[in-house]
Design brief:
Layout: E1 2-3, E2 7-12, E3 17-22, H1 58-61
Antiparallel strand pairs: 1-2, 2-3
């Protein structure tokens, strides 16, 4: 698992697919994932955040 500025990369299962997730663990536009759960939005900030209310990601909060 490697931390990134706004998110992290996590491996799930035996397939070894690398999910790009927000630092709170959710799929979010701040760190788009290419899987079917991924969210790609042109906006950033709290208005575009797809995470829950407990997200403390600096990119989502800006």
């Amino acid at each position: 698992m490697a931390d990134r500025a706004a998110g992290e990369t996590t491996s799930s299962g035996s397939r070894g697919y690398e999910h790009m997730k927000c630092s709170c663990g959710q799929h979010c536009g701040c760190n788009p994932c290419t899987c079917s759960l991924g969210v790609v939005t042109p906006e950033v900030g709290k208005a575009a955040c797809k995470c829950g209310p407990t997200c403390t990601c600096l990119t989502c909060a800006s």
